[in-house]
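Private note to self, pasted from the team thread so I don't lose it. Backbone tokens:
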């Protein structure tokens, strides 16, 4: 990716509503000035998504992937305002996980734009709960106990790019495994679990610091007192990732959970899969099998019940109306949950400040539209969408 020349980008600051001019130079933010102008689009740091399985037909978890798939996915992410993301590899045979990690590593080495966007890799599973419900759409045949040796093979294949791992802490091996990963500089998140409170506490004591799509990846019916949600909501050492698409959590659930965690211990992910952005209908997928995508973005297992979700299909932008109009956050608070909050997990990205990478998104939203319209994206100061 060639170095971007100096330019001035105009918009409105979501925090204040004031007109702002961002000057970029050499791929970095050189200055931010509040200057009166007529541009009405909102301007913020680019969105940071820690959980992307695929989008617009590009699948990271198919039977095989190649460098072109990763490149195409990056382009699809830019179109929806995401400038930093973690490609997410889910439960699969080890050989397939290793091959996917190697491919993402190769894509970063071959393409500077991919390298600028990919802040690491998220491995979600295969050390999750095996039962229906908590397992979600992950294939049961490939669920297995944590293995330090296997993780080391992943990291070798990825060239150190594995930065986040989601697991269930119910496994007896979990605490030792978590300590090993944390020592290696990897963030550990709890998810797809039905673990007891003591098992969750042991995992956090070992170094786990995140909860993956909290409120999802669980049984459809839970014991009202003893379940995996309350300990994670109550533990201030855990930051919660939420899917704010109005399907994975009701607005009331999301509002209550955000209040429990506090905005400083919360962030938003999309968890999009390959069917995201595609026409509604029934599809056959290599991971979930038969699934149904509705026009409103709800994606479920096509088993006649619609009880279990099969991933997410809506991009990060879909979270803004939910967070503002249904949950009651300000636009600034919503944008922070999609930029600086996830950005701190991957080294401090997602901040619009002098000296930071000039990764920016402009969008138009009047407060009533179902989804904001992305009107401009800049990666390292270069206009890319």
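Design output:
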């Amino acid at each position: 990716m060639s170095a971007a020349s100096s330019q001035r980008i105009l918009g409105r600051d979501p925090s204040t509503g004031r007109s702002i001019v961002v000057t970029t130079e050499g791929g970095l933010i050189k200055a931010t000035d509040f200057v009166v102008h007529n541009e009405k689009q909102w301007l913020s740091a680019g969105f940071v998504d820690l959980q992307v399985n695929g989008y617009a037909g590009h699948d990271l978890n198919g039977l095989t992937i190649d460098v072109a798939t990763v490149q195409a996915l990056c382009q699809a992410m830019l179109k929806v305002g995401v400038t930093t993301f973690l490609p997410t590899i889910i439960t699969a045979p080890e050989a397939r996980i290793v091959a996917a990690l190697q491919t993402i590593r190769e894509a970063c080495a071959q393409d500077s734009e991919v390298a600028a966007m990919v802040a690491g890799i998220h491995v979600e599973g295969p050390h999750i709960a095996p039962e229906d419900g908590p397992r979600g759409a992950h294939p049961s045949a490939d669920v297995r106990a944590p293995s330090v040796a296997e993780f080391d093979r992943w990291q070798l294949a990825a060239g150190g790019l594995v930065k986040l791992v989601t697991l269930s802490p119910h496994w007896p091996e979990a605490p030792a495994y978590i300590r090993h990963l944390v020592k290696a500089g990897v963030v550990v998140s709890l998810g797809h679990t039905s673990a007891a409170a003591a098992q969750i506490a042991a995992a956090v004591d070992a170094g786990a610091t995140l909860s993956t799509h909290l409120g999802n990846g669980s049984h459809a019916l839970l014991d009202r007192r003893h379940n995996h949600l309350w300990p994670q909501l109550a533990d201030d050492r855990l930051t919660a990732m939420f899917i704010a698409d109005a399907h994975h959590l009701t607005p009331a659930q999301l509002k209550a959970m955000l209040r429990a965690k506090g905005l400083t211990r919360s962030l938003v992910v999309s968890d999009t899969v390959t069917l995201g952005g595609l026409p509604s209908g029934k599809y056959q997928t290599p991971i979930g099998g038969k699934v149904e995508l509705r026009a409103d973005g709800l994606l479920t297992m096509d088993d006649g019940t619609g009880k279990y979700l099969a991933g997410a299909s809506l991009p990060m932008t879909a979270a803004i109306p939910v967070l503002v109009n249904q949950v009651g956050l300000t636009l600034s608070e919503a944008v922070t949950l999609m930029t600086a909050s996830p950005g701190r997990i991957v080294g401090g990205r997602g901040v619009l400040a002098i000296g930071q990478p000039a990764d920016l998104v402009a969008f138009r939203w009047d407060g009533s539209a179902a989804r904001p319209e992305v009107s401009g994206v800049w990666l390292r100061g270069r206009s890319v969408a």
